[in-house]
Amino acid sequence: MGSWTWDEMNLLAIRRLHYHGIHETYDPLRGWDPQSEYERYLYGKFQQIPVSDIALVITQLIQGGQVTKKGPFWTLTKQGAALAYGLCEYDIQKLSGLWQEIFKLAKPRPRPRRVLDIGCGGGLTGLILSQNGFLGPEASYYGIDCDAAALEAGRMLISRNPGATSAISLSEGNALGLPFPDHTFDFVLSKGVFCYLPMRKAVQEAFRVLMPQGYLVVIVPTMQYMLHKAVAALKSFQPRPVIRYSTAVLLGLASFFGIRNPRQSRFFVGETIRGVQKQIEGIPNLKTLFLQRLSVPFLSRPIALIAQKAMG
Ligand SMILES: C[S@@+](CC[C@H](N)C(=O)[O-])C[C@H]1O[C@@H](n2cnc3c(N)ncnc32)[C@H](O)[C@@H]1O
Asked: In the chain, where are the structural domains located?
């Protein structure tokens, strides 16, 4: 097992606990999924044990009750889960090169100055965009989410991470009634969120706040990803993720064949990008530029839709 310190183990284990399904209890040192690139990456980390400022922050949070331990099993508390989610998202988005691929496709000129992230979770996407020079000078990133715990965890992680060149502002808000006037943003993104929402309203709201010539980027998980997660959960005897991901696959199939639940769902759905595209086709001033299955590792090749609002 090497010479790990308790703090270092916590830092990595909190990520891994999340990766196996929030609030699930299990032994973080058993049952690695060799098919999953992110798990292979974490496993490599477990062998190296880097020490960083974040490790210290997380250790403090663990002492503050972010993780509970019952026998050999560790469970994330709500705040711990939010924190772990933020950390994993940061890792995955950074390592996958997701935004490099999207910006290579879209090439927004000039670079975005006012960015809205709908359902931003911890808002770590803002940090990645800003740290990697995707945003224009003096750009502002606004993240909104309905989950106060996710926002709080994100604020904490962002404040500990140097290198953000843009203003990052995170606030509570609803994707279906965005708290911004019309034509506010030149770049609106939403990753892993529209698959929970009534599609028409979500797309209309994103369109409303977009400036003329502004870009809309929507990313959703794919059926392939859902299936992989369902099978991995089945193999490691975790009933809740099995139900969650199998339902997503079934709802995704129903959606593919045109059977859609018009209401907001507490389940998420595979392959809903077709639903997003359909709604975009219904808005005359919004044109899909790319509908692309991305080649990024770590994310099971999600599909990104990039659209642009017309001039007038
Ligand atoms: C799978 S997470 C994606 C988070 C982030 N975009 C990312 O890629 O890491 C889905 C997020 O959508 C948020 N969400 C769901 N419904 C929402 C709504 N109606 N308004 C705002 N946020 C919502 C959830 O709270 C959650 O943080």
From this structure: 6-76, 96-222+271-309
The alpha carbon of 237 and the centre of ligand 1 are apart by a number of angstroms equal to 27
Exposure b/e, 20-58, CB count within 10 A at least 16 = b: bbbebbbebeeeebeebbbbebbeebbeebeeeebbebb
User: Of ligand 1's atoms, which has the minimum distance to the CA of residue 174?
Assistant: 20
Domain 96-222+271-309 sits in which CATH superfamily? Vaccinia Virus protein VP39 (3.40.50.150)
Q: Tell me what pLDDT residue 3 has.
A: 46
- Whether residue 89 has its Cβ less than 6 Å from ligand 1: yes
Average pLDDT over residues 6-35: 55
Cα 5 to ligand 1 centre (Å): 34
Ligand 1 atom closest to the Cα of residue 264 is 19
| Closest among 241, 286, 278 to 256, alpha carbons compared | 278
**Tokens of residue 145, six digits:** 């989410």
- Give the predicted TM-score (pTM) of the model: 0.84
